[in-house]
Each structure stands twice: as structure tokens, then as C-alpha cells.
Amino acid sequence: MEQKELLKQMIEFNKTTFDNAFNTIVMMQNQTEQMVNSFMNQSSWLPEEGGKALNEWVNAYKKARDNFKKAIDESYKRVQDYFA
CB neighbours of 8 closer than 8 A, spacing ≥ 6? Predict the structure, then answer.
């Protein structure tokens, strides 16, 4: 019984560590996005198509990031259910 509890604690620690690292990355990406948007708004010499392409790129990486987080959360849930 003690080993099972130890494994649960290790899994919870790993999940917490992942969540904290992921949230830090999200925060950095959001700040970078704000800086780039500010630069794009202040740069009249950049074409409008470049701004559209950048927005599409941002939306694509946000969607991929959310899908990745969802897959990781589901995996942790399965492992936690297994040891429950």
C-alpha cells in the first residue's frame, strides 16, 4: 500500500511541475504576442498581409498548445485513475 501511495505522490508532483512549466511558457508566449502586436501596430511600413499571416500563425500555435495541454491532462487523469 505504501508503494502505491508513493507512486500517486510522484505522479501528482510531476503533474504539478508540468502545469507550472506549461503556465510559464503560456505567459511568455502571451507577452511575446503582445510585444509583436504592438510592433505591428506601430510599423506602418509592414504590409497588411503580414499582419494577417502573423495572426493566423498565432491562432495555430494557440490551438496546438491547447490540444497538447488537453492530451497531457487526459494522460495524467488516466494514470491517476489507474492508481486510484
Answer: 80, 83
